[in-house]
Design a protein that fits this description.
Distance between the termini: 67 Å
Shape: elongated
Structural class: mainly alpha
Order of helices and strands: HHHHHHHHHHHHHHHHHEE
Strand order of the largest sheet: 1-2
Strand content: under 5%
Helix content: 55-70%
Amino acid sequence: MFITRQLEGVIDCLLQTAALVNISAAHRAAACNSLCAIIERCQLSTDEGFHGIVWENDLWARLFGIFLERSDNAKAKSMRQVLLVLTGMLLKDAPPQSSDLQDDAVSRLLDIICRYQNRTKIKPALQALAHFISKDLISINQLIDIHRNYSGDGTDPDGGLSAYQLLLRQFLAWVRHHDTAPAASHLITNFLTKSTPQRRCAEEKTGVLAVWIEPLEGSIRDSPEAINEFKHHVFPEVFRLGLDGYLQFLCHLQLDRHLGIKSTIRSPNPSVFTANGCFELTLLFAALQVGKELGLVEDVGWLLSLT
């Protein structure tokens, strides 16, 4: 009992240190690395006192708060370890009350992503949510339900987009910033990969068009200056989801119209080309270039051919 109380004191001191604002990244990393090592050793212990200490004194919630609030002044490798340990705690021998912690954490992450503007706080939230999705700690349906709380009834005020697509638009919104684009792309990839049934359902409601196409195009139109961020971070990931979706995207951008050919693929909601034709062509050429790099299309004289 005495030893466990001493260890609780050490953990509390480390948590306080890791949460300090005015310390160096190296100092914070030392505190976080020590915390992670203690937690992992306690989880392996056969002694119930040590095994259960990791769920005492709000340790999980406090460490999660450090990850979200101090990642902008910390070593990336150390914060990655913190996220892995936090996830491991929920996946291994977690007590019943941990489900409430998990639900609160996901709600907090979505709140940050959907409402915050401070990008130093957005990045760790994107990273954490992507990791939670990849480890099946949260389902896509649960995410959509939580997001409905932030967007009224979960419908698109302009019409056309499903609740699933509206949530995807929230994630895509952070691709436009260079510092959040990689984390947003990783989240989008995990979200789409883990949500095959939801994607199919949404696609059935919107026609044959792949569910990511309209949210992606809309996001790029909102931030045309960031087209290279979308091209580099998002295009390769969504195009790899399937050749059909890629071809639908090209059709949606009216490739057949530009080539003067009749396509057998039809978009139920083709892109509306505006007077700013340069942007639309830039978007189409970017999609073709990435498709070529991925081996989805190849040059055949002045035409393109599927590979």
